[in-house]
Amino acid sequence: TERMKRILGPDHDDTLAAMDNLGVTLGSWDRFYESMEVHRKVLQFRERTLGATHIETLQTMQNLAMALFDLQRSDEAKELILKVYNERKSRLGKEHPWTLWALCYLAKIYSGTGLLQQAEGMLISGIAAAKRSLGENHLGVLMGCCELARVYARQSRYEEADVLARETLLR
Question: What letter would DSSP give residue 171?
């Protein structure tokens, strides 16, 4: 990304996309603070050049929300992911895959903060919508099912969690 910044410039679309991907990678390595910092920088550029509601800006905002959640800054994460979800729902529709992706992340935040019934309801409706538009075996559907199994486990509904997790793994 440093080379891309030098050659293409720090606010070039390809540079920003690479930086955003770097932030996701850092998060997967449990380097959450660094991930957050990268996403913040990308978000600043994208908001300034593309606007606050551009689809790429919203993607970075979603990535930043999840980095904040990983840092246990749940209120900030929830506020950002709600913005992403509502904007995507307004622009793309409530059953668009990207809208459903934001809904799944919102449910993950709700689950992680103990709002298990709300998370369960979101996931059940989101999974049904995703199955209609994407099919039973789409990665997004499977991820939603795994998150729902996690919610069941947190609710001490271990048998339901086990059955759903096993069914999902077999698809």
Answer: -
What does the pLDDT look like over 39-50, one tens digit per residue? 999 999 999 999
pLDDT of residue 28: 96
Q: Is 118 exposed, middle or buried (0-12, 13-18, 19+ CB in 10 A)?
A: middle
What is the per-residue pLDDT across 130-170, written as a single tens digit (0 to 9) for each? 999 999 999 999 999 999 999 999 999 999 999 999 999 99
Three-state SS for 20? Answer: helix
Give just the sign of the alpha carbon dihedral 22, 24, 29, 30: positive
Q: Which of 16, 85, 14, 88 is nearest to 45 (CA)?
A: 16
**H helices present in the chain, as ranges:** 2-8, 13-28, 32-49, 55-70, 74-92, 97-112, 116-134, 139-154, 158-170
Contact between 146 and 168 under an 8 Å Cβ cutoff? The reply is yes
Distance between CA atoms of residues 73 and 141, nearest Å = 27
